[in-house]
UniProtKB/TrEMBL annotation:
It comes from Catharus fuscescens. This is MGF factor. GO terms for cellular component: extracellular region. It is found in: Secreted. Keywords: Disulfide bond, Glycoprotein, Growth factor, Secreted, Signal. GO terms for molecular function: cytokine activity; granulocyte colony-stimulating factor receptor binding; growth factor activity. InterPro entries: 4_helix_cytokine-like_core, GCSF/MGF, IL-6/GCSF/MGF, IL6/GCSF/MGF_CS. The lineage of its organism: Eukaryota, Metazoa, Chordata, Craniata, Vertebrata.
Amino acid sequence: PAGGLALLLGVLLWRALHGAPVTELSGDQDFQLFLQRNLEFTRKIRGDVAALQRVVCDTLQLCKEEELVLVRQDLNIAQAPLEQCHKRTFQAETCFSQIRAGLRIYHGSLATIQALLPGHTRMVETLQLDMANLSSNIQQQMEDLGLATVTYPTENQDPLPTFSSNFHHQVGGFFILANFQQFLETAYRALRHLTSL
């Protein structure tokens, strides 16, 4: 039963993190296939975000984070939490839930980027579509494993950040992409960690 698989997954993750050999999970072909596919998918999304970061650098001349740190303090740009994906107490269920919640937050905040770069709407929309697909892949896998899933309503999206000036809007867009890239790197490492169990 699916509940048994979720329990097995929890036990295996716990044992893997505490140095015990793990062979059972690597035998779950479907789970390993899911991880490999979505590692590739996450890598593609990271590449798309990096391409948007290059556009922001070329178009708006905003390239270096250290030059913008002082302005960042005036902006209310939150980083989506992923602490459940790299704590010593790693749990697949909470990590997957945090990845999905973060994808939802960044999906909405990409509207800020779209407003900044109207000539690159197609790039932003492709990225949003990929993010939605990655989120639904994770939800499907959680359901297959019998893990609890939380579905977030799409209609009451988080409010977009407001900016007091065009420059703040540009810097806000820069940091949304920088935060999203960090978020994706952590998510990627979490998925890779699961493949090595």
